[in-house]
From TrEMBL:
GO terms for biological process: actin filament organization; apoptotic process; cell motility; phagocytosis. Pfam families: ELMO_ARM, ELMO_CED12, PH_12. It comes from Calyptomena viridis. Residues 292-465 form the ELMO domain. It comes from the Eukaryota. Signal peptide: none annotated. The keyword Hydrolase does not apply. Involved in cytoskeletal rearrangements required for phagocytosis of apoptotic cells and cell motility. Acts in association with DOCK1 and CRK. Was initially proposed to be required in complex with DOCK1 to activate Rac Rho small GTPases. May enhance the guanine nucleotide exchange factor (GEF) activity of DOCK1. GO terms for molecular function: SH3 domain binding. This is ELMO3 protein. Keywords: Apoptosis, Phagocytosis, SH3-binding.
């Protein structure tokens, strides 16, 4: 357009994130001081050329170039005129999301001005909120290290969290800044941990403002995950004293508002961190020479047999007493009755099994005595060994509840009943050990059947937990209702279903039905893509609360995507400004092949993210649109749908599951008339035609 001073102008997207269009890779000058050093040493490329990413139909506007905007706003935020300063900070908060503008502003030492606005503390309300928002967005680009922040700045941010008479939006932003800061260095973690007390975070958790509650929970989780094991244990003990569990159960889980994905993830992490406190005991073997541990074992024996052994014990010789103890330990179900400590040398479950047995004996003494005495009176081969069962059950519960495994970055699957009960693991053990005895009797088991019984118990527990009971009482009711005969019925149904689908004619029918049903699955996958899905952006530093939405156009020709706000479930397709024509899609990458998982490979790779990551390679330049699915189910549906669009086979495990379900239903419908009729493996022979088969009608006679 032959504009004079063309370098002072730039094109910018009119919709969506309003990113500046960049022509070439540029390296802006670094500011003096530590911020400049951090920027100069940053591995992040500065201005990635994005001109080639412009799609047909994108609306652009002519605006001031990023460096001119950065210069103008840099001056504006130093203005003595409060209106000019507020407007400049508001515009800065908006433009800082753009990487090109962010570099230009940081290169002018703009962060120093933001530091001074916060440190001087003269501004409040709307102006301060814009300042903190701009700071958060600028730091999001990872150009400047969090460790460069001054102690004065950090303490000022902390003061906004600790003060009562502060606007909720400022407290939310301050909590978010501290959450980002905590995982970056040990020094910052200790500073925040000492300045923001757990009591203060609990106060924020008790407010009615859901966003403030969420940010407080996010900071609490960041502190717990960054802490060392002893620190984490102390923090969890303190939170337990303050009844955080009861508060979460009553005011977060069972509130009238639906639980958001972010809060569900934090509750999952809190549950995981709590259960992992058992890991140390689980991995510690029993020391046969420890006097304290030997006394605990003896107390277990005495609680069960005190009435039998107390009175005459003084009259027995040492040898007789040892023989009596060995006999009682055998009745308790220890394999090595002369030295029961040997049974607890296996780790896992280690000393955790002993802790569970002691908890059961002390907190439910009647049930404990009944279990032991009932089995003592049975024949040797039919008695259910309490100790051996407890050790194996503890191991099963550790495996089911993932004790000792690292937290997932994306999982949201927590058990509501976990927050409804103190000593959850021990109480669950108490219910399940009585279930073992019940199932043992129902199976009329002998010692040789021990592994079979424990396998049934594992199935009873996992099937009941899958129903997500809201309390341990409900779990107890349901798991006891799922007795051995019910398990047999379920197994038999599954086995019969498998057998009837393996007959040769049925297999042939399956093959004929497959193409039609696969087409049905393809249509369902494309419909799911048309409905769209909400994805979260996950950085190498932390789980982010930024959301974006992606959906397929109804004519299956264009993928639309764009950023959305929290709480938007299904944005209209017109509001998603970015688009990729399906014709430009080249290939689908999953797991380790994705560029966004390779970027993170320098740190500790998270298996969970690898399992949910996929990317679409598109355009001649082979750009990538990177996804991390919220669940494995969404991952399967999206990868299947994208493969359909690319004209490839659907490869996810969900395709096979859905195909099996549809085939099963279709086969049952087709075979309804053959119920209770055995289907032969080979078709019956076709009989020879009869000798008097003269059904042919001679039309010639009729014509005459």
């Amino acid at each position: 357009w032959s504009l004079p001073n063309a370098e002072q102008y730039a094109l910018q997207y009119a919709d969506g994130r309003q990113t500046f269009i960049t022509e070439s890779v540029r390296h802006p000058p670094s500011p003096p001081g530590p911020a400049g050093a951090a920027l100069a040493g940053s591995p992040v490329p500065f201005s990635l050329q994005n001109r080639r990413e412009i799609k047909n139909g994108s609306i652009l506007r002519l605006t001031t170039s990023p460096d001119q905007e950065a210069e103008r706003l840099y001056s504006g935020i130093q203005s003595k005129n409060l209106d000019v300063k507020t407007d400049s900070l508001k515009k800065l908060a908006s433009l800082s999301q753009d990487v090109t503008f962010a570099q230009e502003f940081i290169s002018r030492n703009g962060l120093k001005q933001i530091y001074s606005i916060v440190e001087e503390g003269n501004d409040a309300g709307e102006m301060l909120a814009h300042t903190l928002k701009a700071f958060t967005e600028l730091m999001e680009h990872d150009f400047v290290s969090w460790e460069n922040l001054s102690t004065v700045f950090i303490k000022k941010i902390v003061s906004y969290v600790n003060m009562n008479a502060v606007d909720a939006s400022i407290q939310q932003l301050s909590l978010s800044i501290l959450e980002n800061m905590v995982p970056t260095s040990r020094l910052l973690f200790e500073l925040v941990k000492n300045e923001v007390t757990l009591d203060r975070l609990l106060t924020h958790l008790q407010v009615t403002n859901a966003q403030l509650q969420l940010k407080a929970m996010a900071l609490l989780i960041a502190l717990l995950l960054t802490a060392t094991d002893p620190e984490r244990r102390d923090m969890m003990d303190y939170l337990r004293q303050k009844n955080i569990r009861q508060f979460i159960h009553k005011n977060i889980i069972h509130t009238s508002e639906p639980l958001g994905d972010e809060m569900a993830h934090y509750l999952y992490v809190l549950q995981s961190v709590s259960l992992n406190l058992c890991e140390h005991r689980m991995r510690t073997s029993m020391d046969p020479y420890s006097q304290e541990q030997r006394e605990l074992l003896q107390s277990l024996r005495q609680t069960a047999f005190e009435s039998e052994s107390e009175a005459p014990a003084g009259n027995f010789s040492t040898e007789r007493r040892r023989s009596l103890c060995a006999k009682e330990f055998r009745k308790l179900g220890f394999l090595n009755n002369s030295n029961p400590a040997e049974d607890l040398r296996r780790a896992p479950p280690g000393l955790l099994a002993l802790d569970n047995m002691l908890y059961f004996s002390r907190n439910t003494p009647n049930a404990y005595s009944r279990f032991v005495l009932e089995n003592s009176s049975r024949e040797d081969k039919h008695e259910c060994p309490f100790a051996r069962s407890s050790i194996q059950l503890t191991l099963i519960l550790c495996e089911i509840l993932h004790v000792g495994e690292p937290c997932s970055e994306t999982a949201q699957a927590f058990y509501p009943m976990f927050f409804g009960q103190d000593h959850f693991f021990e109480e669950l053990f108490c219910i399940c050990i009585q279930l073992v005895n019940k199932t043992w009797k129902e199976m009329r088991a002998t010692q040789e059947d021990f592994d079979k019984v424990m396998q049934v118990v594992r199935e009873q527990i996992t099937r009941t937990l899958a129903l997500k009971p809201t309390s341990l009482e409900l779990f107890k009711t349901r798991v006891n209702a799922l007795n051995y005969s019910e398990i047999l019925k379920l197994r038999q149904t599954e086995r019969l279903h498998q057998e009837e689908t393996l007959a040769v004619p049925v297999l042939e029918l399956r093959e004929r039905l497959k193409p039609e049903l696969l087409e049905l699955i393809r249509q369902q996958r494309l419909l799911h893509l048309c409905e769209g899905t909400l994805f979260r952006k996950i950085s190498s530093r932390r789980r982010q609360d930024k959301l974006w939405y992606c959906r397929l156009s109804p004519n299956h020709k264009v993928l639309h995507y764009g950023d959305v706000e929290e709480g938007v479930n299904s944005p209209p397709i017109e509001s998603l400004t970015e688009k990729i024509p399906v014709a430009d899609m080249k290939m689908l990458l999953v797991g380790k092949e994705c560029p966004h998982t390779k970027e993170k490979s320098s740190g500790k790779q998270n298996k969970d993210v690898l399992e949910l990551a996929f990317s679409i390679v598109h355009d001649v330049e082979e750009y990538c649109l990177n996804f991390v699915a919220p669940t494995r189910y969404e991952f399967c549906l999206w990868t299947d749908g994208l493969n359909v669009l690319l004209g490839k086979e659907m490869t996810s495990e969900r395709t096979q599951t859905d195909l099996d379900v549809l085939l099963s239903m279709e086969l049952k419908l087709r075979l309804l008339d053959l119920e209770n009729i055995s289907i032969p493996d080979t078709p019956p022979p076709i009989p020879k035609p009869p000798s008097n088969l003269n059904f042919c009608y001679d039309f010639s006679h009729a014509e005459q």
